[in-house]
Amino acid sequence: AQSVAQPEDQVNVAEGNPLTVKCTYSVSGNPYLFWYVQYPNRGLQFLLKYITGDNLVKGSYGFEAEFNKSQTSFHLKKPSALVSDSALYFCAVRDRGRDDKIIFGKGTRLHILP
Amino acid sequence: KAGVTQTPRYLIKTRGQQVTLSCSPISGHRSVSWYQQTPGQGLQFLFEYFSETQRNKGNFPGRFSGRQFSNSRSEMNVSTLELGDSALYLCASSPQGAANEKLFFGSGTQLSVL
Q1: Rounded to an integer, what distance in angstroms lies between the CA atom of residue A5 and that of residue B69?
Q2: Rg of chain A over all Cα atoms, to the nearest angstrom
Q3: CA dihedral of residues B8, B108, B41, A27 (deg, nearest 10)
């Protein structure tokens, strides 16, 4: 069965510092991996996805994520955090080649401290 | 292009009642999926519809049901409401519902069951 783990409920980072939001996954086959962000009182917005090819994926708002097959991880990163990055972040996985449902992690709340 | 539209934005119901939520996808999108978001459980997949057919279903009781119309608009119904059904219900659309497509989310319907 597919699963996604976001081990940190909350991450605090000082503005200007690099940030990392962790995600690990489990699928029976090869994964499609996604990151979404949710700002207060809003729906989710797509940030980036890994489909195939380069393990480093670049997305919206300066975010990037690295696919690591051996560690089954897809951590979200940004070199320099902004206060406006404060939001709830969700990692999601879908099993490639199967007509299966998407599984979301429980979310990580990111606080960027001014 | 208009985004995904969900109505109503807020709902207050009492236990035992039923409720219907509506979702209008982005024009041209044929896949609509529904999610329940709660602080404790994160984001959980309810079901997905494509061309008026339910293509996938999450692990929710039969009280949760949905349908999709020929114009791709979708409704979700919850019967015999329970206190635990209080949540933000999100709808998302995508062009073909393919596993590698990103999802476009609406702002959600906040349901409170008293």
Answers
A1: 35
A2: 14
A3: 130
Report the distance separating Cα B40 and Cα B96, nearest Å. Answer: 31
Q: What are the chain A neighbours of B100 within 8 Å (beta carbons)? A: 32, 49, 51, 94, 96
Q: Nearest Cα to B46, choosing from A102, A5, A7?
A: A102
Per-residue pLDDT reduced to its tens digit, B49-98: 999 999 989 999 999 999 999 999 999 999 999 999 999 999 999 999 88
Which of chain A's residues have a Cβ under 8 Å away from the Cβ of B103?
34, 36, 44, 46, 102
- Tokens representing residue B90 in the block: 């999100």
User: Is the CB of residue A89 less than 8 Å from the CB of residue A76?
Assistant: yes
| Residue corresponding to tokens 């393990």 | A55
DSSP 3-state assignment of A18?
Answer: coil
The three-state secondary structure class of B86 is: coil
CA distance B63 to B82: 10
